[in-house]
Amino acid sequence: MSKNLVIVESPAKAKTIEKFLGADYVVKSSFGHIRDLPKKGMSVAIENNFEPSYEVSADKKKTVSELKKLAKSAETVWLASDEDREGEAIAWHLYEALGLDDKKTKRIVFHEITKPAILAAIEKPRQIDIDLVNAQQARRVLDRIVGYELSPVLWKKVRPSLSAGRVQSVAVRLIVEREREITAFEPEITYKITAVFTLADGTELPAELATKIASKDKAHALLEKLAASAFTAGAIEKSPGKRNPSAPFTTSTLQQEASRRLGMSPKQTMMLAQRLYEAGHITYMRTDSLNLSPIATKAMGEYITSQFGQKYHESRVFKTKSAGAQEAHEAIRPTDVAKSAAGADEQQKKLYQLIWRRALASQMAPAELEKTTIAINANKTDEVLTAKGEIIVFDGFLALDTKRPDDVLLPDVKTGDKLDLVEALATETRSRGPARYSEASLVRKLEEMGIGRPSTYAPTISTVQDRGYVIKADVEGVEAEQLQLSVKPAKEVAETTEKVTIGADRGKLLPTDTGNVVTDFLVKYFPDIVDYDFTKDVEEKFDRVADGKQEWHDMLAEFYGPFHKLVDASDDISRAEAVQARNLGTHPKTGKPISARYGRFGPMVQIGDKDDEEKPLFATIPENLSVETITLEQALKLFELPRAVGTTADGTPITASVGRFGPYVKYGSVFVSIRGHDPYDIDEATARELIAEHEKKLAERFIKEFDGGIQVLNGRYGPYITDGTKNAKIPKDVEPKDITLEQAQEALKSAPAAKKRRVVRRKK
Question: How far, in Å, are 127, 254, 257, 350, 351 from residue 347 at the CA level?
Fold first, then answer.
């Protein structure tokens, strides 16, 4: 048996490290965390100083057993998980669960998976940093307490199956508030003045007015003056400028730039970066430090000088601004700067190139620019138009940029030259309101506010989408008319309009009705949980625990007392208070109030109220509308459903309506989705086509049937066996159509019991 056992988190990391160590070392993976709080129950003894109860997860018991056996026979056990709070906690859980001997256990850390880094780490082992472990425990326990105590409040007061998370709820609040700012925004109408001139040789010179004109009348008057003016070139200013390279990537900036340039989500970016790190291509990718090691900057300098020349190299040291940044870590950089391409697939290669260029550019000279501004004077007005150009004199770090800006060249003009007006335009413009968050800009905002840490950004953004509080979607925008005034020399001002789309957005984060109602509830009754400064303060306390400046149990006690009082007080909140209805108006015929609200089964509109003699009428709000924006007219239309469409070929009535899962047609007891069609105008022929397609799919679903209700069916993930209560996979070496009753029974016998679905019924 080997003298040394090295334990890391992932098989890929183990495979890479094993190449660097000799025959005396065995490298094994723990496959991430081996212990955690159980999925069910609080598992935190609040009355016993918040002591957590950990368990080895069922899928890790075999791994733990194998590692115990290897550790027992090894002379030294090296715990080599990542150097952050999560990695330190993994090492500590391994130490505890494997029952390791302190005398033969060593903790090693490194920021890149290269042979020199691994060997250097083995030369400088340390003990497990219990302060880092406690910071991770504090985060895990606090988030468990919030989820376990607050989620049931949401179930009772808002809707079953909802959940609340400390950082996630704040992220949702940001998105909810931004959407409301956009809805409330009133654009300001102004006019942008542009013009095109020609020189004596016929060369065109575009120009514009630096300031916008406040009204149509003023724009019209200015165009009239321009039409009657003679023009000359005024002052010509040439000024040098510089553009400096950006700092190397941190976790946050990598996610932002990968989104902007490569269209990658934060989750996808981190997954690809993890693989590049484990393969030894880049340094550790969870970092908020801008630091680069002297060895790395020296290697970059040598590479830049050899590939581009000495004048392209400029050594820089970047200082991290954020408090609590881990300067012992490095920024994300390639482990071998001479390797300009790396990665196992195209996506990894693209991300590696982005990291390689950014790191290398940070040690390159700035780009040198020459900016030219030409003033254009008119003899009938004091307003001065300007033409602007910019050329790159020395590209510097832009030599690496695949999307470098193009030069904007201006024609050769001298002060006093006569210019002829070709046309002047005044184009109506609308001021832009607050921008919706993309995944990348939300990461930037969370980082700016000190909410969360590098390891939390991607899972936070994924979680709020998975839970249905936020969706990533395109916004179509609305059609509007844009006015344009134009004039040519000695001519009348002409007016034209064209249709433009305003408010369109692509790939932005939008709150759902669920996100709106949960945010409003938390802001009103649990303000600290979604308070930005409070959440930032909690993160800073985690940092203090990690630095050994605060005891983690005390930190939890400070939080829990006030929080639990709010949970207890929530018993007195009525559901009507929690989910406030929005009054839309009254029914034109009955005079009954019509309201929109969030019900136990989602967003809905209601005619009447519970105190009326007649039972209120309800209708589901479809996906394209929301509680916050639905109008009285739109609400009334919803009560026209279900609508009679026609009949099937055998005379069964077909009706169309909208339900929890979108628009549908119904015949008999069968529901058929009609997504993409309007339930208000779908005709009989279209409905019959969709029903025929549905029946065809059902027919194709059936493969074989046996006595006793056992069937072989085609499912969403392929063929399977079912008896109505249990589902079983079909053995790989058996054709679904050839399976026998005995094979089906045997497969069902060993299949796990189906999970029970929770059904929530309305009270009568």
Answer: 38, 14, 14, 5, 6
Give the H/E segment covering residue 198. strand 189-198
Pick the range with the lowest mean pLDDT from 237-251, 473-487, 733-747.
733-747
pLDDT greater than 80 at residue 280? yes
CA distances from 137 to 10, 35, 77, 92, 455 (A): 21, 12, 23, 11, 15
Report, at the CATH architecture level, how domain 141-180+436-469+512-571 is classified: Orthogonal Bundle (1.10)
Between 199 and 321, where is the model more confident? 199
Give the separation between CA 464 and CA 487, rounded to whole angstroms. 52
Q: Which of 191, 277, 284, 598 is catalytic?
A: 284
Query: Could you confirm whether 284 is annotated as catalytic?
Result: yes
What span, in angstroms and rounded, lies between the C-alpha atoms of 408 and 413?
A: 15
User: Angle at Cα 513 formed by Cα 511 and Cα 516, nearest 5°?
Assistant: 65
Domain ranges, ordered by start, for the chain: 4-128, 141-180+436-469+512-571, 189-244+368-430, 251-365, 581-638, 643-701, 706-750
Write down the pTM of the prediction. 0.80
pLDDT in tens, 686-737: 999 999 998 888 877 888 888 878 888 888 778 888 987 888 888 777 888 8
- Residue 384 CB burial class (10 angstroms; 0-12, 13-18, ≥19): middle
DSSP string for residues in 469-512: SEEEEEE--EEEEEEEEEE-TTS--EEEEEEEEES-EEEEEEE-
Q: What is the pLDDT of residues 310-335, one digit of tens each?
A: 999 999 998 876 555 444 578 999 99
Q: Rounded distance, CA 48 to CA 557, Å?
A: 11
CA distance 743 to 712: 11
CATH number 1.10.3720.10 given to 251-365: no
CATH class of segment(s) 4-128: alpha beta
Both tokens of residue 468? 């249905």
